[in-house]
Amino acid sequence: MIYFDNSATTKMFPEAVQSYQTVSEQYFGNPSSLHELGDVSSKLLKQARVSIAQQLGVQPEEIFFTSGGTEGDNWMIKGTAFKKQYYGKHIITTRIEHSAVNHAMDFLEDLGFEITYLPVNKAGQVDLVELREALRSDTILVSIIALNNEVGVIQNLEAIGEILREYPTVHFHIDAVQTVGKMDLKLGPESRIDMAVFSSHKFHGPRGCGFVYVKRGKDVTPLIHGGGQEMNQRSGTENLPAIVAMAKAFRLVKESEQATQHQLKQLTDRLKQGLHQYKQITVFTPGEASAVHIVCFGIKGIRGEVVVHALEERDIYVSTTSACSSKSGGTSGTLSAMGFAPQVAETAVRISLTGSNTMAEVEQFLDVLDELYQNFDVIHSK
């Protein structure tokens, strides 16, 4: 089996699985309980928070555990809107966001907030001039995906941050779900980024777990109320086994980050080289400012799902665009925003790699793709 769908979800590290099992079996006390079992669990929770904070170069009290990327994006966006609505109701985002962001924006728009959707250029990047022109005195939030999950476009966060330094009251939120181990992300007091969202299962941790970074002094309204867990910001008994396993996976990925990025770039460079040999294949992932682990392409006249299933029959697993939207049957919103026609966008297939993938797998994929390419009747009719 060749698994090339790591942007959808990754396989858990064995070390993370072991941590999950150990905590589940031996440290089952509620971290909020006053007895010794609760105290031990509380200490494990603290250790996980400190570990993640150290890897990011931020403070432990700036890390809050969640159920994953969707909750994190919803919390940061809605929480900012509710907290700052008396100062303004204008929010800026882009046309290439994850569905968690898009639907949160739809929700707020129904409540009377005004949303400005920035277009992107053919390379999928935000026009900085348009961003500057969109900012207003009543703007309260700018929400931008750091690394696009469909085609792998990386936004110029530092340049965006420099613009936003002139607007210190505007919260700057990024969806950082795809970034871990794949790009260098600068957080902390010197960074203009106020809030960043992460999801465990994107970096070899368990599903249903994640965390957000919220810079000290940047308040958001809690969405979940109850027992006051997570420093009164996100109530609910903590999923300690998943949190500890996530912290372990996060540390392992961060420790090998530079080497993994180098390896992944070699693999994606070879993939792009192979794909560019075919006249009927379009590589949607831009050549510059793109992730080291994502290659999005399409075969002219062949819907993406046809290619996905044809590869699956050969025990190779890829996806169309994002996992959250691949079953909906719609075309890629990112590709449409980048200027591709619907009939072109619907051909999109996404390859997404991780550190365990190999050059041998890439070569086998290219061999299988060549065979499939030659067999598609539409190719011979052009």
Spell out the blueprint of helices and strands.
Blueprint: E1 2-3, H1 14-26, H2 36-56, E2 63-66, H3 69-84, E3 90-94, H4 99-110, E4 114-118, H5 128-134, E5 139-145, H6 157-164, E6 171-175, E7 195-199, E8 210-214, H7 229-232, H8 240-255, H9 257-275, E9 281-283, E10 294-299, H10 304-312, E11 316-317, H11 333-337, H12 342-345, E12 348-352, H13 359-375, H14 377-380
Helix pairs in contact: 1-8, 2-8, 3-4, 9-13
Cofactor: pyridoxal 5'-phosphate
Protein name: Aminotransferase class V domain-containing protein
Domain Aminotransferase class V: 2-365
Total beta strands? 12
Strand order of the largest sheet: 2-8-7-6-5-3-4
- What's the architecture of the largest domain, going by CATH? 3-Layer(aba) Sandwich
CATH superfamily of the largest domain, please?
Type I PLP-dependent aspartate aminotransferase-like (Major domain)
Domain count: 2
Q: What would you report as the Rg, rounded to the nearest angstrom?
A: 21 Å
Write down the secondary-structure element order: EHHEHEHEHEHEEEHHHEEHEHHEHH
* Count of runs of 4 or more consecutive helical residues: 14
pLDDT average, as an integer?
A: 94
- Top CATH class of the largest domain: Alpha Beta
Oligomer: single chain
User: Which regions contain 5 or more consecutive residues with pLDDT less than 50?
Assistant: none
Main beta sheet: 7 strands, mixed
CATH topology (level 3) name of the largest domain: Aspartate Aminotransferase, domain 2
Q: Structural class per helix/strand content?
A: alpha/beta
Shape: globular
- Percent helix, as a range, is 40-55%
GO molecular function: catalytic activity; iron-sulfur cluster binding; metal ion binding
Family: Belongs to the class-V pyridoxal-phosphate-dependent aminotransferase family. NifS/IscS subfamily.
Domain Aminotransferase class V: 2-365
Cofactor: pyridoxal 5'-phosphate
